[in-house]
Amino acid sequence: MTTFRCGWKKRVGFLQDFKGGYIADKLGIGPRIHGKYTDQAGSVSLVMDIVPGDFPQAAKEAITESTFRDFVEIKERLDKFDISVEDDFQFYITPNASIQVYRSRSAGAVA
Q1: What is the pLDDT of residue 6?
Q2: Mind listing the pLDDT tens digit for each residue in 43-64?
Q3: Bridge partner residues of 48 (DSSP)
Q4: What DSSP string runs through 12-77?
Q5: Which residues of the chain have pLDDT under 70?
Q6: Residue 78: helix, strand or coil by DSSP?
Q7: DSSP SS3 for 100
Q8: Rounded to an integer, what distance in angstroms lies between the CA atom of residue 56 and that of residue 63?
Q9: Counting Cβ atoms within 10 Å, is residue 35 exposed (0-12), middle (13-18) or buried (19+)?
């Protein structure tokens, strides 16, 4: 869950995360986004399905040929909508070797 305290810069960051997550959800390459949650302290969190797995560097043993096919499919889906994969395109490798996009905040990327 992504959390931001009050402040316009952090709200913009939240909106970028929400937009990126929403697009990944709708393209079928990320977890389902359910909305946002604001706690009593004013922290805003993005509410989404739990993404099992880990960063690619930590999940090396889970990476297979299927993982690379997922990456190509994700890139093709993004390309159809003229969305590029930038350096901060972040994803988890799941235990079954698939990729789940959970964040991208570059201008011109998923966000």
Answers
A1: 47
A2: 788 888 988 888 888 888 889 9
A3: 33
A4: HHHHHHHHHHHHHHHTTSSPPEEEEEE-TT--EEEEE----SB-TTT-GGG--HHHHHHHHHHHHH
A5: 1-11, 85-89, 103-111
A6: helix
A7: strand
A8: 8
A9: exposed
Give the span between the Cα atoms of 68 and 4, in whole angstroms: 33
Q: Say how far apart CA 62 and CA 54 lie, in whole Å.
A: 9
Residues 111/102, Cβ–Cβ less than 8 Å: no
Where do we find the tokens 């350096």? Answer: 87
- CA dist 46 and 87 (Å) reads 22
Q: What is the pTM of this model?
A: 0.68
pLDDT of residue 110: 41
Element of type H or E holding 87? none
First to last CA, the chain: 17
